[in-house]
Amino acid sequence: MCHVIVTCRSMLWTLLSIVVAFAELIAFMSADWLVGKAKPSSSEDVDNRTGGSQEPYHPTLGIYGRCTRISHMQFSRRDTLCGPYAENFNEIASGFWQATAIFLALGIMILCTMAFVSVFTMCVQSIMKKSIFNVCGLLQGIAGLFLILGLILYPAGWGCQKAISYCGPYASAYKLGDCSLGWAFYTAIGGTVLTFICAVFSAQAEIATSSDKVQEEIEEGKNLICLL
């Protein structure tokens, strides 16, 4: 018989697992890993409504994508265009970034799978006498290690030609040059920290769902058990 068990700690772990997976996925897909040096407005960058020059813009560069400003001949208007600069894996600007993409993709795949599984832990808490919480926590820890490897390798690729074109000639491995770090990089770091918190908190979720109070509710014949 399936017993739906919802506790404060297990629900918090489930929600955190989902948030972490989405945060890492969004960061990976974003082009805002590096913010390039400001491009000054040219004589063509004129706001037709005010007659003044537009503010300088900052192109951004991700692991496989980029955002830059493109010109429109009509009205001398410029729009920001974002999209992948690499049509396939081999065209990613640096070998270090290719390794970063692999490790981050592996970590995110595990996290997304664990986020999906965590939803069903309300109904199924163990498989083959193994706690799903503990298994998920272990896999989340492994995912966190993959994410750390990816984030360590990423700055080693700052010396590639693509990064230099955005960050200036002084950019090199682990040196930003004229660039700054974008929100996606910080989001990936924050998500990695939360991944390990999830891994540790999974043990608390397991304790909460197997407590004596839960067992008493099961013995009383209840199928839906909600505990704070």
TrEMBL record:
Keyword RNA-binding in record: no
Protein keywords: Fertilization, Membrane, Transmembrane, Transmembrane helix
GO BP terms, alphabetized: single fertilization
Subcellular location: Membrane
Principal subcellular localization: membrane
Record-level GO cellular component terms: membrane
Sequence intervals crossing the membrane: 12-31, 96-120, 132-154, 183-203
Membrane protein topology class: Multi-pass membrane protein
Family under the similarity heading: Belongs to the LHFP family.
UniProt name for this protein: LHPL2 protein
UniProt organism field: Mionectes macconnelli
Classification lineage: Eukaryota, Metazoa, Chordata, Craniata, Vertebrata
